[in-house]
Amino acid sequence: MRDNSPDPGVTERVSAALEGRQRAVALRDGDPAGAAEALRAATAALRVETHPVEFGLANYDLAGLLLEGDAPTDELEEAAQAAARALLVFDPRELPDLFAGASERLGLSQWRAGRRADAQRTFAQTAGALGSVQRHALQARLLGSLARLLGRAAGAGDGIRAGDALGAFDAAVDAARRAESTALLASLLNDSGRLIASSQGANGAPHSDAALTRFDEAAALVDDNDLGAALPVHGNRAAAYGLRETGDRDANLREAIASYQRAVHLPGLQAHPADAARLYRAMGTAWAQRPGGDRVENLRQADGALESAIERMPDDAHRDERASMWNERGLAQAELAQRGIPGAVSATVTAFREGVAAASTPEATALEAQLANNLGSAIMTAASQGQEASLVDAAAALDRAAELWTSLGQPEDAGASYLNAGLVYMTLHSAEREAIHLDRAIERLQAACATRPLGTHPEPHAAAQFNLGMALAIRAGGASEADLAASVEAFRTALQVWTGPNAPPQAAVAHANLGSMLFGMAKQNEPDLLREAAYHYEQALAVYTAATNPQQHQVISNNLALLRRRQAAGNGAV
After folding, report:
1. CA-closest candidate to residue 401, choices 354, 464, 356, 445
2. Could you tell me which of 38, 56, 44 has the C-alpha nearest to residue 97?
């Protein structure tokens, strides 16, 4: 008679295996290596013929554990073998969730081990098996996993076409529609829309309408109470409309703002301040870019959104992110100031000052340089409007900007800061009459000329030469021939650029000053100097007419008349 009682040795092995699996669960977080060893022992002790479910679960757990972190190739291959053993047990009809999970772990193991063709076959075949038994939601999840892998590979430029990823996404979307799984469908539409947007962007046409169609549908489907699902959907839709190049620009930005508004009011977002800050910042940018509507109101909305962004920014956020937000606030307030909005000038100075403080580091950065330049310019504006402002602070900020731009190898930007610093020092000299201010003005203006040469930057070079000429003329004071000669050359250089009817108003000032300087230098009635002086007086009078500038016209006319008499005397006329 056959003894059908269980083998005590087998029973002990099975019990030990089950205990090992339970121990692995307890060790998983604190001792993953120990957990893996316990699962290896469990899988070795169990037999698929006698304890199929336990065998399948132990291998399923082992595959999942080995996939965590940056596993080496040998562990990835071990994970693939464990997942394949689990699939011997899990049937898509009877245990579809475990079948789908084991299939995904097998495909991921193969993909990460470099066997991408095998991985694609695994995903495709097992997804087909799920579809054949009407498990469309699980089929969609599996195809979505494949699509995301293909999409990341295409983005990394390894030769896998983005079209392959989109094809997998489309199949996943179809499966999700059949399953009537709204949340899953919204997620797949969002991810596939992002893939379309990024792949189109690589070809120079970012965020195509095909991507927006998916984002629109995803936004209509997603549950706003599910923050993890809703946040990327509304954020991506907003960004896509903000970058859309077709259609009405203002309408696109209104759609972007509406999506950002929806995103910043999602339940639970307050627990994620960094995400909230970035959304508010993006919304502020969209408001600032709107070409339609009331410009002042748009700028106020932009400033308010940026203020909310700064308030929500975590203390450990990168300093550049905070500094950039202050810079954007400063730019919005500066435009409000140009429109005469009360308080905007002082708000501009405050914003740029906060930005400089946030951006300041031992290493030079373009952001700090830009903020320092903006701060100096804002203080100049405040001072010009009679508001309380320290021109010394303005000069220091502009000097710092020029220093930073120079160390970053950006002479053109340094030239702009040098020019503004020179103007500030000239204003300080005018107010305080201290020679050091004028010396510094001349140094900065000479640097502005050097960093933006005539041959490559004619207009900025002319502006710097004009102001250098003015500063040198002041320092010459009629006594320094060297400064006077340098001033004449500076004005001459500026007027090489400022010719014709489109010359700026400063050209007339340069002509008038140059005429007077050359006239003064012609002590022996040198005919060449007198002739050149007369020419410049005539050019100035073409702008300073009796009707438009009677006082200047009278002074220059008198000087020209005196010059003509000296010319006549030099020619022997009576």
Report:
1. 356
2. 56
- DSSP code, position 271: G
pLDDT for 524-536, tens place per residue? 888 999 999 999 9
Three-state SS at 363: coil
DSSP letter, residue 7: P
DSSP state of 248: -
Tokens of 63: 């595959």
Residue 173: name the closest of 195, 190, 156 by CA. 190
Ranges of H-type helices in 46-181? 52-66, 73-87, 96-112, 116-132, 136-155, 162-179
Q: Are 156 and 199 in contact (CB under 8 A)?
A: no
Task: Give the orientation angle of helix 227-243 with respect to helix 182-202, to 10 degrees.
Answer: 30
Size of the chain, expressed as the number of residues it contains: 574
390 sits in which H/E element: none
Please check the confidence at residue 538 and state whether its pLDDT lies above 80: yes
- Report how far residue 178's alpha carbon sits from residue 461's, in angstroms, rounded to the nearest whole number: 68
**Closest to 238 in 3D by CA, of 225, 257, 264, 219:** 257
Best CA proximity match to 205, nearest among 246, 242, 158, 166: 246
**pLDDT tens digits for 57-71?**
889 989 988 998 888
